[in-house]
Write a structure and sequence with these properties.
By secondary structure, the protein is α+β, with helices and mostly antiparallel strands. It contains 4 helices and 15 strands. It has a single domain, classed as Creatinase/methionine aminopeptidase superfamily (Creatine Amidinohydrolase, Alpha-Beta Complex), CATH 3.90.230.10. The strands form 4 sheets. A 5-stranded antiparallel sheet has the order 8-7-9-14-15, sandwiched between helices. A hairpin with a 2-residue loop joins β4 and β5. The longest helix has 24 residues, at 7-30. The two termini are 27 Å apart. The relative contact order is 0.19. The chain binds magnesium ion (2 copies).
Amino acid sequence: MIFLRNHDEIEKIRQAAQIVRKSLDEVEAAIRPGLTTWDLNEIAEKATIKLGGKPAFKGYRGFPACLCTSINNEVVHGIPRKDRVIKEGDIIGIDYGASFQGYFGDSARTVPVGFTPDGKLKDLIDSTRESLKLAIAAIKVGGFVQDISRAIDDYITPKGFGIVKDYVGHGIGTKPHEEPPIPHYVTRDRGPRLKEGMVICIEPMINMGSDEVRLLEDGWTVVTADGALSAHFEHTVAITEKGGEILSA
Ligand code: MG
Ligand code: MG
């Protein structure tokens, strides 16, 4: 079932998404070589509590932390650890969810650790961020979920990067993950129609090599099958009569 949210509900999702955005801003500002991924987890959790929210992923389906931290060839769902130190030259995906008065927000970004990327890595990160922007611009009431998928696919595939297919975006509202699934590549099905009041998370995961991924033995961390680097950006987006409105910006 796809929920259509009224103005008040969307405002609560916006408040949750703003707590996510501010918590991620604090984590991003703190990122430097020598910190552990657990340090980043604590920064996110403290920021959210200070802002009156609750970390959404803590204990969600058994996830053992608040923040997902995915380094280099890790695609999504990396688990923060006290013995995992980030180094200069790493790229780290920080993916975070929070709730506010029973409503959820979710956002992610990929951040270089202590350096400015160039060449193909810069292209990977910039293209992933840009594909999310294009996907949001493709939203219009009366269109289809596939319009979102196609905007990403048409932009990314000619660059030779791999769009992860095994993990997709999702609806969001009173649960962190709701219907409908939002693929980041064109499938045979055009998907549900886009309606005013839908709130969705679009989160392209783009690999420098093949789109194939595998799950590590910890049961959470998803890595690229070929070991290549991967980038991830995500926003919580409301569908309005004017198009896609980012709630987590
Ligand atoms: Mg997320
Ligand atoms: Mg998400």
